[in-house]
Amino acid sequence: MSERIEKLKAFLKDSPKDCFLNHALALEFVKDGDDVNARTCFEINLSNDAGYVATYYHLGKLLERVGEREQAIGIYERGMDVAKAAKDMHSYSELQGAHEDLVY
Questions:
Q1: Is 104 exposed, middle or buried (0-12, 13-18, 19+ CB in 10 A)?
Q2: Which domains does the chain have, with CATH numbers?
Q3: Helix, strand, coil % (nearest 5) of the chain?
Q4: Phi and psi torsions of 17, nearest 5°
């Protein structure tokens, strides 16, 4: 396990619901090819704060990669709703593009 993963886990012990730290940990797992732990981190983020927009794109990409197409579509759609509500049009556009690539 990488040193960065260990550091992020240590930080999360003090702030277990910190979405930024949990998201960073998930991305480190993705880099290491550990989709199982990455997915767990992304899902924890959604349960802690469904408004954390960045989670939707990366979780959707992970689901695509592991062959869960329908779940990825659903995550992108939920993410677009959350991004639109937050008036985060940059994230909305990224999610929409990923969704369109998968659906059409």
A1: exposed
A2: 3-103 (1.25.40.10)
A3: 80, 0, 20
A4: -105, 15
Q: 75 Cβ partners below 8 Å, 6+ apart?
A: 56, 59, 60, 63
Q: Please determine, for residue 1, whether its predicted confidence score (pLDDT) is greater than 70.
A: no
User: Tokens at residue 28, please?
Assistant: 């480190």
**Identity at 51, one-letter amino acid code:** G
pTM across the whole model: 0.93
35-88: pLDDT as tens digits: 999 999 999 999 999 999 999 999 999 999 999 999 999 999 999 999 999 999
Distance CA 40, CA 29 (A): 10
**Residue pair 63/75 in contact by the 8 Å Cβ criterion:** yes
- Between CA 12 and CA 44 the distance in angstroms is 12
Residue 44 CB: number of other CB atoms within 10 A? 19
Residue 85 burial (C-beta neighbours within 10 Å; 0-12, 13-18, 19+): exposed
